[in-house]
Amino acid sequence: MIVDLHCDTISEIYKKKGLTLRENNLMIDIKKLKKSDVILQCFAMFTHLKDVSEPYKYVNALIDLYEEEINKNKSDIDFAKNYNDVLENSDNKKISAFLTIEEGEAIEGSIEKLEHFYKRGVRMMTLTWNFENSIGFGNKRITKNGEFAGYVPDTENGLKPFGFEVVEKMEELGMIVDVSHMSDAGIYDIIDMSKRPFVASHSNARAVCNHARNLTDDMIKKMADKGCISGLNFYPEFLSADFSNRERKAYIKDAVEMLKYMVKVGGSEFVALGSDYDGFDDTLEWKDASGTKDLIDAMEKEGFTHSLIENITYKNALRVIKEAVK
Predict the structure, then answer these.
(1) Distance, CA of 186 to CA of 258 (rounded, Å)
(2) 288 CB-side CA count, 13 A
(3) Which contiguous run of DSSP H or E holds residue 151?
(4) Residues 260, 50: Cα–Cα separation, whole Å
(5) How far apart are the two ends of the chain, measured CA to CA in Å?
(6) Most exposed residue of 99, 197, 245, 292, measured as fewest CB within 10 angstroms of its CB?
């Protein structure tokens, strides 16, 4: 069984029009999820602030589409707002759809708007996405000859005063705090203040692939000590730093090596899956969500124990949902 903490599929269906969640040419649709025995899929309502002038309005429109698509396919997939919903859906042979937001500026600096999204069913929110917002900072964007040239860690700018208020309110409501895309300083702010387990829904280990979006060993250890988890991201740029002699795509071997390292540093209860399906244009060795099972086969061949594979694929994520979501 598989729980996936992050995908951008609904945003892609919204932008491209004419696509459906039941069957499409994206990385995720219902048929593909069923082939890999996915029991819970987190659907992120993603907002790119440079392209969207009214993020609150935009995310509500994404949620309208999400609800429409789930309601059209109730025989195979249903809403889940907590741990018990997941169990009930599983008993009824249905995939659980878990609603999340990627880009905290969807709340436009308002606790009331955060509460609105909770009432609409949102149970996890990524606080930032690569840009400074009213909550805090992502890592620093760097330029070369006037062109965007990547990111470097920001160890100085973390949560803003409103950001501390947001994290506190999210924990009070029972909404999971997601630190993927957050600056280094912001992650440490949340490590220091959090009272419930939080997640890096789609982040890998920086020691294996030196990208600012990945977690340092110290972050991994401190998060693990608090019962937090990180979802393995399949984006090639976060899996490997070297594609000089091979095609740039997500390779199973790279994913398995990343898993090994994250388990080594964070322990068997730290690692989950956060595919980032439909959040990048690169190809995958296993093509799409229908082939996620190939990764499990590779873990078995590499000597991962049955209990460790279960932890990574679904148990760790369900534990955090059970502990952090009301």
Answers:
(1) 24
(2) 17
(3) strand 147-152
(4) 36
(5) 23
(6) 245
CA distance 276 to 126: 13
Going by the DSSP 8-state scheme, the letter that residue 105 receives in this structure is G
* Close Cβ partners of 192 (under 8 Å, ≥ 6 residues apart): none
Strand partners, 96: 40, 78
| Of the candidates 116, 73, 125, 59, the residue with the CA atom closest to the CA atom of residue 98 | 125
Residue partners of 134: CB distance under 8 A and separation at least 6: 104, 105, 107, 108, 109, 160, 162, 163
Tokens of 176: 């999971």
SS3 163: helix
User: 């937090």: which residue's tokens?
Assistant: 228
Q: Are 207 and 216 in contact (CB under 8 A)?
A: yes
Question: What is the Cα–Cα distance from 97 to 234, expressed in whole angstroms?
Answer: 20
Name residue 169's amino acid.
K
Q: What is the pLDDT of residue 99?
A: 98
Per residue in 122-139, pLDDT tens? 999 999 999 999 999 999
Q: Number of H helices and number of E strands within the chain?
A: 13, 13
Confidence tier at 37 by pLDDT (50, 70, 90)? very high
Helix or strand (DSSP H, E) at 78: strand 77-79
C-alpha span between 184 and 192 (Å, rounded) = 13
CA–CA separation, 78 and 82 (whole Å): 12
Backbone angles phi, psi at 9, to 5 degrees: -60, -45
Q: Is-contact 229 320, C-beta < 8 A?
A: yes
Q: Where are the alpha helices (DSSP H) in the chain?
A: 9-16, 30-35, 55-72, 83-91, 111-119, 161-173, 184-193, 217-225, 236-239, 252-266, 292-301, 306-310, 316-324
Which one, of 275, 104, 280, 268, lies nearest residue 186 by Cα? 104
300 confidence band (pLDDT: 50, 70, 90): very high
Q: What angle do CA 267, 273, 277 make, to 5 degrees?
A: 155
319 vs 114: CA distance, rounded Å: 24
pLDDT number for residue 146: 85
